[in-house]
Amino acid sequence: MTGFVEHLRAAVEGDVLAAPGDRALYSVDASNYRHVPAAVVRPRSVDGVVAAVAVAVEHGVPVTNRGAGTSVAGNSAGAGLVIDFSRYLDRVISVDPVEQVAVVQPGVVLDRLNDAARPHGLVFGPDPSTRSRCTLGGMIGNDACGAHSVAWGKTSDNVRALDVLLADGRRFDTRTPPPLDLPEVDPAWFPALDRRVSGYRLDALPDLTRALVGSEGTCATVLGATVRLVQAPPRRVLAVLGFDGPYDAADLAPQLRELDVLTIEGLNAELARAAGESRRLLPRGESWLFVEAAEDSVAHLAAALAPHSVVVTDPARQRALWRVREDGAGLATRMADGGEAWSGWEDAAVPPERLGAYLREFDALLAGHGRRGVTYGHYGEGCLHVRIDFDFRRGHRSFLQDAADLVVAHGGSLSGEHGDGQARSELLPRMYPPAAIEAFARFKAAFDPGNRMNPGRIVAPAKLDDDLRVLVAPPVIPTRAKLALRADGGDLAAATRRCVGVGKCLNTSGGVMCPSYRVTKEEKHSTRGRARLLFEMLGGQVVRGGWRSEEVRDALDLCLGCKGCKRDCPVDVDMATYKAEFLHHHYRGRVRPAAHYSMGWLPLWLRLRLVNGLTARLGRFGGVAPERPLPTPVRSFQSRFAGRGGGGDRVLLFPDTFTNHFEPGVGFDAAAVLGHAGQAVEVPRGAVCCGLTWFSTGQLDVARRVVRRTARVLRPWTRDGVPVVGLEPSCTAFLRSDAVEVAGDDPDVVRLAESVRTFAEHVSPLLEPVAGAARAVVQPHCHQYAELGLDADRELLAKAGVSASVLAGCCGLAGNFGFERGHYDVSMAVGEQTLFPAVRAADADTAVVADGFSCRTQVRHGSDAEPVHTATLLRRRLGL
């Protein structure tokens, strides 16, 4: 393929990627299938797309078009040339509020289109749960729908025209096509069903636009689209209906279609349980419907039809409830017992009035095959989503065949919105008569007679049980982790399979995940990309070298270790932990980067008093970024603290390295507040450290020794049940969670983890409300966000009379990350996303609160503000 790649580089305006790591990143989408491409092109212009397709055709290489890569049917992974539209061809060209249409490039993200339409009171109707990252091109390829199709239909109902390119180089507007040899069509071939997405939509002819929507890139390449916009409701009311039986929600759903509703979504008890604490937002029940309406009266009418219900008008609470449903594709990938569940039969649709009966028979089918599944979906349109605990080696094909026969018996469609891809194309003859299958072949041949466009999908299908990634790329190196990886039984391979590719880490706003991707927009810097590279590293076919892999090392280099993914990823991928595991193996028995010695061992150097003003200025020799001024240690908090409090309850203040040696004032402020609250404050005299700096640099053996020693030092307090209050969120989070990953077999470590509390968790219940008012901008530490939560902090600040604006996103420094050579630009760019603008915009009398030492340091390096710890702000508010 060398000549092909060189030809691409000479002809295409854009990025041509052919390195092993790049090909590995694009080898899968969000499906079960794996196809390693020969090359990937990210064109910068439409002309670049035209040139790339021409080169591929000249070399006999098939073409697969790709948006965000969130297809769960295997529509967007191919073994030839993959064209990624999401990187550059991502613009909204125009919005016409009078005609209510928009012209878009295929790589534009749905949320971005809606951002452009919203000022005109308009919205694009179809809205998949992946709307924050899915592209219009991908939606057109699959005929995507989403929750609001009850009101606004599928993508095919909302596209006015397509600008398409054929493999032979012809380009045209689908409203004015050239002569094409299209097949005759019998309407009787097609079930009467709104959510019919399987096969080609030949019954839409002669409307070529609608017929090509949902063709999965098998006929033409979409270069642009004119789409219909609809009036956005001025407000939305959400009724959540709870039912006592597992099928009651499905039985009632058709009745709700008689109301003027926007959505009718369903979920079952197992998905609700997987949602964790969010489960408490739901009313009682074993199955639920989410019914959204534009009018309160309609929502209350819907609610009255269920034995248990709640009507929600608060937008924030609505978003929290919708998150349970929208994260379903991720939440459902793990069964209640931790077993893995997979896509492959995840979006069949039946007439809504048949849904209850179908769901009962489908559950019986699962049981008959010895399988389990977590179901949810678009109940108002009879579309059922499910993840199933398939055994791909036994019974996979027979189950899918039986499932196809069942849905057809109910007058349904194999796919209700995701398309056929490799998962279902082979099953189409079970849904359509031979004449229809022949017509599909003629339709494709009218556009792509050489079968260059996404072959193996819909026509002449690939086998549904070929190319399954867990079978074709099994691990070839030991996968037992050094860390406990408790959620995955200590198996790194299982941990990498947590990522199913839904791509929430590609979000560019909201939450924390993934700060480095938000700066670089490179797939390898997303949580998904890193998980894929680790998977391929274990398989050894494309990413070679095992633990010595440079591709994985380079991708993880810009992982901030923020743990945002552990909180924001719907399947709890914890890339910071996987990075620590990788670094442990990668540098085992080898010289490490200088920063691993200078900053990884910083707690020891500080305790030995080897860090001072002079050595701080020599940081560049220790792998420290020359742009970063280094903090200078002062006399430690431990050496100066004489105890505080009298006969109150005992509390141990944990003297973390950063408070102890750099900002002891925070420790004194905390002690003053605790004493004011009637606590007898104690501080250990011996050296203690959580071990985080060694953990984050992959020096796991040292981290284990350090945390075990600390747990022994603190044993007199933890055995007596004395709370251990942490001030540095990263250390507190480490002691509560990661310490057990490192040394969970040590009872002292486990006891310490159970004893640790944040400052806010301990103080808030003890504090009486403070008179007066103040304002603050609050930058939460990412580790606290991921592991500990912020509820207690919000409550404490409110009690202190502080109106807090809590920021979302990482500060960018992230412990040692922002200090390491080569990371400064990315670190500061992360800070510019949320933190720095918010700090600069704050009034002079607005406090900037950041409990993390690294967060406070980043504020100082990126602004003129002087940030404070919550303990410091609270001491001031109390006048102590």
Task: Briefly say what this structure is.
By secondary structure, this protein is α/β, with parallel strands linked by helices.
Q: How many distinct folded domains?
A: 6
Shape: globular
Kindly report how far apart the N and C termini lie: 73 Å
> Which percent range describes the beta-strand content?
5-15%
CATH architecture of the largest domain: 2-Layer Sandwich
Main sheet summary = 6 strands, antiparallel
pLDDT averaged over residues: 95
Poorly predicted segments: none
CATH third-tier fold name of the largest domain: Alpha-Beta Plaits
Oligomer: single chain
Tell me the number of strands: 24
Question: Would you give an account of this structure?
Answer:
This protein is 38% helix and 13% strand. The model has no long low-confidence stretch (mean pLDDT 95). It has 880 residues and is of the alpha/beta class. It has a six-stranded antiparallel beta sheet, with helices on both faces. It has six domains: 2-86, Uridine Diphospho-n-acetylenolpyruvylglucosamine Reductase, domain 2 (2-Layer Sandwich); 92-231, Uridine Diphospho-n-acetylenolpyruvylglucosamine Reductase, domain 3 (2-Layer Sandwich), CATH 3.30.465.10; 237-419, Alpha-Beta Plaits; 473-586, Fumarate Reductase Iron-sulfur Protein, Chain B, domain 2; 602-763, no CATH class; 765-878. The chain has 41 helices and 24 strands. A hairpin with a 5-residue loop joins strand 8 and strand 9 (171-173). Residues 549-579 form the 4Fe-4S ferredoxin-type domain. Residues 33-232 form the FAD-binding PCMH-type domain. It comes from Saccharothrix texasensis. One of its GO terms (molecular function) is FAD binding.
